[in-house]
């Protein structure tokens, strides 16, 4: 028996002997001590509620730490040459090693962070044969193993118009191989970088109201010889008519080129560019920000041109697509309903 227990026994016995209490009172006293030793009901309820709250918070933390399984999205998955699709890889982490590939000819996929994943705009060259192709994604994260998915892409046949031009030998010299080679470094440099963010707003505008004289993708013959495909649309208009930016972006080229004359190229972000060629004059400078509908130049016939008109082109990376597709639909709207 410890000294404390012995002292308690002596103290209680002394109380009884001195008539200061009775065995009945002592029993009541012991019961009160037992009740005091137990937690009060209100305190117990508070403890239970705190434990429950901690459990819920723990579950929430676990949920936040879970990484969603990646998901590859294509829209559309069935299209024609000269069109484009949006590729979105959902549920990837910033530190994941990601590879996007395709067997579309002369096509490489460049992806940019967008919402909770990666986005890539993919143009299909107008000379691509119809058939079945694929887009594949490969993700290696912190956890062991590799996630991979392949999605099928159907390219349906499309017939393009033809254009026949007759020009003088002097005029033809303007678009000689030597002239093209002088221009290409400037064009490639302008399109070598693009904003990581989409700079455009809404759907694109037609930069000029006028009569369309040449379709996108038209098979072009000059003096009876096939020379390639038409990379944009030609819109005829009187000399000096204002040409506006089809959408917001940054001017990455504004200069005279041998073949396309006075030319403006605008970067709209995510590897998407528009070009405005054969202008009479320029109203913007390189590095300048422009907004949708802002004047950037005036219609002319500079460079290789047979009359006053605007050549309007849209490029994804280095692949030209039909410009009117952007007038019909905003590429970012194609993901609505697809992303969770």
Commentary on this structure:
This protein is α+β, with helices and mostly antiparallel strands and 340 residues long. The chain contains 6 helices and 21 strands. The chain has 3 domains: 21-65; 71-158, Immunoglobulins (Immunoglobulin-like, Sandwich); 162-331, Glucose Permease (Domain IIA) (Distorted Sandwich), CATH 2.70.70. The chain is 23% helix and 35% strand. The longest helix has 25 residues, at 41-65.
A few lines on this structure:
The protein has helices at 3-17, 23-37, 41-65, 169-172, 177-190, 324-328, and strands spanning 71-75, 78-79, 84-90, 97-102, 112-114, 117-123, 131-140, 147-155, 162-165, 211-214, 219-222, 225-229, 233-236, 242-244, 249-257, 261-267, 272-282, 289-290, 295-299, 309-316, 319-321.
Q: What form results from the Cα inertia axes?
A: globular
Averaged pLDDT, please?
A: 85
Largest sheet: 10 strands, antiparallel
Given the helix and strand composition, which structural class is it? alpha+beta
Q: Termini, distance in Å?
A: 70 Å
Helix fraction, binned, reads 10-25%
Series of H and E elements: HHHEEEEEEEEEHHEEEEEEEEEEEEH
Number of helices: 6
The CATH topology assignment of the largest domain is: Glucose Permease (Domain IIA)
What's the CATH H-level homologous superfamily of the largest domain?
A: Glucose Permease (Domain IIA)
**Measured on Cα atoms, how large is the radius of gyration?**
37 Å
Domains (count): 3
Report the CATH C-level class of the largest domain. Answer: Mainly Beta
Strand proportion: 25-35%
Question: Mind telling me which CATH architecture of the largest domain this is?
Answer: Distorted Sandwich
Oligomeric assembly:
single chain
How many β-strand stretches? 21
Contiguous uncertain segments of 5+ residues: 1-39, 56-67
């Amino acid at each position: 028996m410890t000294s404390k227990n012995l002292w308690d026994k002596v103290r209680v016995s002394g109380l009884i002997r001195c008539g200061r209490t009775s065995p009945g009172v002592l029993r009541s006293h012991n019961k009160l001590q037992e009740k005091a030793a137990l937690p009060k009901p209100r305190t117990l309820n508070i403890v239970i509620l705190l434990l429950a709250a901690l459990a819920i918070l723990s579950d929430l933390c676990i949920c936040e730490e879970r990484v969603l399984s990646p998901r590859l999205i294509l829209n559309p998955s069935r299209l024609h040459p000269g069109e484009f699709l949006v590729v979105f890889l959902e549920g990837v982490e910033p530190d994941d090693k990601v590879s996007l590939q395709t067997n579309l000819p002369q096509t490489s996929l460049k992806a940019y962070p967008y919402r909770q994943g990666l986005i890539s705009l993919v143009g299909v060259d107008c000379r691509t044969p119809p058939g079945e192709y694929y887009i594949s994604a490969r993700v290696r994260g912190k956890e062991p193993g590799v996630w991979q998915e392949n999605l099928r892409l159907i390219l349906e046949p499309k017939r393009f118009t033809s254009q026949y031009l007759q020009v003088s030998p002097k005029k033809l010299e303007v678009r000689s191989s030597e002239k093209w080679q002088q221009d290409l470094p400037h064009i490639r440099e302008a399109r070598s970088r693009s904003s990581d963010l989409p700079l455009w707003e809404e759907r694109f505008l037609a930069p000029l109201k006028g009569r369309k004289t040449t379709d996108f993708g038209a098979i072009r013959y000059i003096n009876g010889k096939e020379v390639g495909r038409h990379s944009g649309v030609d819109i005829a208009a009187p000399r000096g008519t204002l040409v506006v930016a089809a959408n917001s972006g940054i001017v990455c080229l504004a200069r005279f080129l041998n073949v396309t004359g006075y030319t403006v190229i605008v970067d709209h972000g995510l590897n998407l560019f528009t070009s405005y060629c054969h202008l009479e004059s320029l109203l913007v400078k390189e590095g300048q920000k422009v907004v949708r509908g802002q004047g950037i130049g005036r219609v002319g016939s500079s460079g290789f041109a047979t009359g006053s008109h605007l050549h309007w082109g849209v490029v994804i990376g280095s692949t030209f697509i039909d410009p009117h597709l952007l007038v019909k639909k905003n590429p970012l709207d194609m993901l609505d309903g697809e992303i969770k």
